[in-house]
Amino acid sequence: MIDKKYTETVHTDMNHYEYTTVTHDENKVRVYTLKNGLKVFLAQNFDAPRIQTFIPVRTGSNNDPADNTGLAHYLEHMMFKGTSKIGTQDWEKEKKLIDQISALYEAHKAEQDPEKKKEIYKKIDQISQEASQYAIANEYDKAISSLGASGTNAHTWFDETVYKNNIPNNELEKWLKIEKERFSEIVLRLFHTELESVYEEFNRAQDNDSRLVNYELMDALFPTHPNGQQTTLGKPEHLKNPSMEAIHKYFDEYYVPNNYAMVLVGDFDFEETIQLIDQYFGTIPYRELPEKTPVIEKPITEVVTKTVKSPTTPRVQLAWRTDSYGTREAMLADIVANILSNRGEAGLLDLHINQTQKMLWAQAFSVGLKQYGYFSIVAVPKETQALDEAKEMVLEEIELIKKGDFPDWMLPAIINDFKLQRMKGLETAEGLATTLYDTYIKGRTWEQELNEMDEYSSFTKEDVIHFAQAFFKNNYVVVYKEKGVNDKLVRVENPGITPVKINRDAQSEFLQEILADQPEDIKPEFIDYQKEIATDHVRDKKLSFVKNKHNDIAQVHFIFPFGSDNDRDLGTSTQFLQYVGTHRFSPEDLKKEFFKIGVSNDFKTTNNQLLITLSGLEENIEKGISLLQHWMYEVKPDQEIYTQFVDTILENREAVKKDKNRIMTALTTYTKLGSTSRFLDIISKEELESSKAEVFTDRMKNLFKYPYEIFFYGKDFENFKGYIGKYIEAESLQIPAPKLYPEPNTGGNVFFINYDMVQMEMSKAGKGNPVNPSNFGKVNVFNEYFGRGLSSIVFQEIRESKSLAYSAYVSYSAHSELNHPDYITTYIGTQPDKLMIAVDTMNDLMSELPEVPSQFENSKNAALKQIASTRVTRTNIFFNTLRLKKLNITHDFRKDIYEQIQVLKFEDLKQFYQAEIKPVHFNTAIIGKKENLNMEAVSKMGTFTEVSLQDIFGH
To answer: Which of 612, 587, 617 is nearest to 602 (CA)?
Structure first.
């Protein structure tokens, strides 16, 4: 039995509200339970005058009716559509029409004749068009963004639906008023257009083979439990035959105060906050939850095999079912996953397979759910290896654990890393709030959560061995992801939705009240970088220091003012370093040494900077620096390892050419920058194969001879200055001149890649004028108003009105460095038969900037509130100065942006649009199945070129 360090205690606050805390809890979390059963988790964080909010509901796809899968996720979407007060101009008239639509959907669901179903759908479309004249699209988002909220979103999973907002603390009561209204009732307005958007989300999932593999894996692991039988997105036949009545029933049953919680972490007063929450949410009545019969799975007693085919690189995934989150079995499975793969890359898979390059990649992980969970390993073999060979290689590593063939230091190091990650996770408002809502969803107490680390610490090596011997048998699921044609893709006909009215200018009485209620403004605080950053010099190196006011974790950054533009092969050299050792340590031993002291290392190469970062407990940072420099100065070239490294690079190059997302990224870069960009200037296969290992290791040996500066984030600068001099070598090498890459004009070209997928994705890229920081305020408001976000013009028109895409945006990206151009990009992902309508709609929207005065004011005020309530903290204090330096700015430029937005008029935004965006000419990138491409329509967009993978990847 473990002595509990953390124990729950009960208190009563000054207003007689009872709450619990946990002894020794550094975050001083308070947990209240209101009379209607609502749980309220409150914790203070004074980083900024903002509050991270989550409303986690203890229901998800596992509670979907068997004949209405996907319902919980669809309901989540509809929670953004408003109520009888939010989002309507005349509720009485609108309600009558919505009721008719609901009845028609029931008839549509019951009808078996396809032609009659189409006729019913036409009626639904017709009445939806009539109902939309009373609807106000996205009014919830307009209300919430008017507060200065950020991160507005939601997600649905097995047992949870979580609603998210980060708000300024002076808007707390208005946020509660909006959310109380939203959680009191649901109105299914603009239903059929949103349904089509959800179907587009389903299509995106079909083009994501990680999801497809996971579906097969879960189906085999849980042949009767909803974990495996009900996907979050649902079955296509259920999505196409929804029931509005079933959604209302689900909402009434599960969206009750005794089944959700309020999680708030931020800058607020405990007593005032709980009173406000009770005032708004305490009036929602308690309701008994439906009785659920637990589904108990039979043990898996044999190897269950599944196969998935798609165009991407082959891989194999194994999984064993575990007990539920927080159980002894689930915790031991988590430990075993970390013995195999851990953050320090010192696990058995890390060292025996990834480090030695025996296959492309292997990783273990565990997932704990409310009921059951699973332990899994993913392995990606080389092209010459069979999937079964990869499977056997990872099973051999599990056999080592069964035999106890892993070092004694490993278990304590893993537990220390768990504690370190917990410390990092709880230091921010979002991190703490996320842990709190997850604790609630899983039905655990905050006391149990805090005691978890001591439970992990109590496990011995013998416990792990006995667990592995009993757990890992021929009782697993294996999914072979083979390269091939996926014959299970569902391709759906465009239902022909008539665009609905979105009434951009209209405002409900509820929104007018929200906008009229103006609390006292939060005054913006702009940082004095000279005051916040201490500087000094040791030998010839500049040192910068920002104090960590939160915990004992420190970071040291070595910042080299050159990158791949100065030395094309710098990034490859830092990659090769990861595979080689020194005369004292093998490559595997180096990983172990870093992991033992709990210090992580990271090398990040960009075109104009190399950043080497060490992070860990401050007391171990010097050990980390010493080990890092030993590694780099004493690195031992090994030609045999280098040959394997080259093979791995070449295989990875082939693998990325099969990945749809990587292909789209490369295609859009090619569309923007052409065939002479730095992204295509890579070391060739021939150069790689003919090079010597010394070419790359010598770079690392000489690195500290170049100019660089040091940034230290921690508590004791004096102590750091006392020892860092020992590790600084006199500067003796000069930085090579950077290679200059052209930034060609865009316009009149369409570049296409043929790829077997359900959707079609299109992105346009246009080169703008050179970056001008005096435009940053306008850029901020333009993106909010027109191009991005739930209430933007583009989103409302393409998704809300016409249901043409799940994802669509226009983005103005200001360049991060002077004397370089800005870029304007557009994106649409949709069914092939909708693409050209979506393109035409986007072109119409961009021909002239639409003028919606109320939306402009809302976007402007939202931007001001976000800046006013944001604070620059932690390492961002220093790294902001590096970013601003590239723009020749030395002060907190947010002040200039804030002042510009304060006086911004719509006419100013219009002039910015006319000068900076309208004249831009675009190139177009399209990926999809060629047979689905409307060539006549595409030819109107420019000169069509079907490019090869070699064209866009450079290999």
So the answer is: 612
At residue 494, the pLDDT reads 64
The amino acid present at 581, given as its one-letter code, is G
* Residue 343, Cβ density class (10 Å: 0-12 exposed, 13-18 middle, ≥19 buried): middle
Quote the tokens at residue 863.
Answer: 């931007």
DSSP 495: -
CA–CA distance, 679 with 558 (Å, rounded to integer): 25
- Identify whether the C-beta of residue 309 lies closer than 8 Å to the C-beta of residue 460: no
- Distance separating alpha carbons of residues 239 and 242, to the nearest angstrom: 6
pTM given for the model: 0.96
Closest to 719 measured CA to CA, from 556, 876, 541, 530: 556
Q: Note whether 122 and 180 are within 8 A (CB).
A: no
Which two three-digit tokens encode residue 792?
């933007």
Closest CA to 243 of 124, 108, 359, 141: 108
CA–CA gap between residue 52 and residue 71 (Å, rounded): 27
Q: What local confidence, expressed as pLDDT, does residue 209 receive?
A: 85
Single-letter amino acid, residue 28: K
Q: State the pLDDT at residue 1.
A: 53
**What values do phi and psi take at 54, rounded to 5?**
-135, 140
Which helix (H) or strand (E) segment holds residue 949: the answer is: helix 949-953
pLDDT value of residue 695: 97
Pairing of strands 600-605, 477-483: unpaired
Cα–Cα separations (whole angstroms), residue 596 to 371, 410, 413, 617, 897? 34, 8, 6, 12, 46
Are the C-beta atoms of residues 49 and 267 closer than 8 Å to each other?
yes
User: What is the length of the chain?
Assistant: 955
Assess contact for 342 and 394: CB atoms under 8 A: no
321 CB contacts (<8 Å, ≥6 apart)?
221, 222, 297, 300, 372, 373, 374, 475
Other beta carbons within 10 angstroms of residue 782's beta carbon come to: 24
H/E stretch holding 717 reads helix 717-724
Q: Which residue has tokens 């040091």?
A: 710
Give the N- to C-terminal CA distance of the chain in Å, as an integer: 59
Q: Which residues contact 438 (CB under 8 A, 6 or more apart)?
A: none
Residues 6 or more apart from 4 whose CB is under 8 A from it? 447, 451, 454
The Cα 432–Cα 550 span in angstroms is 13
Side-by-side strand order, sheet with 18-22: 8-12, 18-22, 30-33, 39-44, 261-266, 50-57, 161-168, 150-156
Q: Which residue numbers in the chain have pLDDT < 50?
A: none
Residue 627 token pair: 């080990």
What count of other Cβ atoms lies within 10 Å of the Cβ of residue 936? 8
List strand residue ranges (DSSP E) for 577-672, in order: 600-605, 610-617
What are the CA-CA distances from residue 838 to residues 803, 832, 928, 930 (Å)?
9, 10, 15, 18
Q: In angstroms, rounded to a whole number, what is the distance separating the alpha carbons of residues 134 and 362?
A: 55
Rg for the chain, CA atoms, rounded: 29
Q: What is the pLDDT of residue 4?
A: 82
Q: Report the alpha-carbon distance of residue 364 to residue 736 in Å, rounded.
A: 42
What pLDDT score was predicted for residue 203?
A: 83
Please give the full DSSP string across 606-628, using - where no structure is assigned.
Answer: -SS-EEEEEEEEGGGHHHHHHHH
Residue 600, CA distances (Å) to 347, 453, 583, 591, 623 in order: 14, 20, 21, 9, 12
Cα angle at 859 between 857 and 860, to 5 degrees?
Answer: 65
Three-state DSSP class for residue 752: strand
**Residue 437: closest CA among 255, 263, 274:** 263
